[in-house]
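Team,

Forwarding the record for the chain on the shared tracking sheet. I've put the sequence and predicted structure together so nobody has to dig through attachments.
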Amino acid sequence: MIEISALSKRYGAFTAVDRLDLTVPAGELFGFLGPNGAGKTTTMRMIAGILRPSAGSVRIAGVDLLADPLGAKRSLGFIPDRPFIYEKLTGMEFLRFAAGLYGAKGAAVDRRAEEFLALFDLEPWRNELVESYSHGMRQKLIIASAFVHEPAVIVVDEPMVGLDPKSSRTLKELFRRYTDDGHTVMMSTHTLEVAEGMCDRIGIMQRGKLVACGTMPELRGSGDGDDLEDIFLRLTGEKLTRDVAEVLRA
């Protein structure tokens, strides 16, 4: 599970994340939403140990990230919004390399890597250098690398970017089965339909604060007819600055 307590990140006078408290239990697929600049990616990077918090704490599968960063990261798979891949490795070599960072190696890793390459239709490219991969293929390889060491927790920032419809469907199924097996997935996305259709609970960030968190019925409250887009716009105060029809007539 993920346990976040009073988590903050400040850049000088600007507060990107402001005393965030959140728990994502085992077996849950949690959706993390917010407008641009709300603090989602900053939060994800602090959970992954890429950014150091200004205050507060993060625990991954019961291990404090600041006190024992390596121990916490062993239980974590991270899929960033802008992934980096060593282009002079083949797909299979990259998955072995990613698993090796967590101390996993041998026949079990190779077997698991082969399964994920096949799952995302990358098996014919397993021995080709990553520099020859398309953007979508690279995204699928990064996703596979997050799962290959069998982490208890997956944190993913904008997972569907660059994926074709079949791969998006495969990833949705993968997330669902992973949480059904008792693991945790925390997913940031701008695609509200994906969040509404997939997630057990949804949290909405605005200006560094968590302004709402709950299941879809809980978020709707008395407005039973609201979809997630209506709820999101209402809670974040986002609205069109000009009427679309006026712009088209201008």
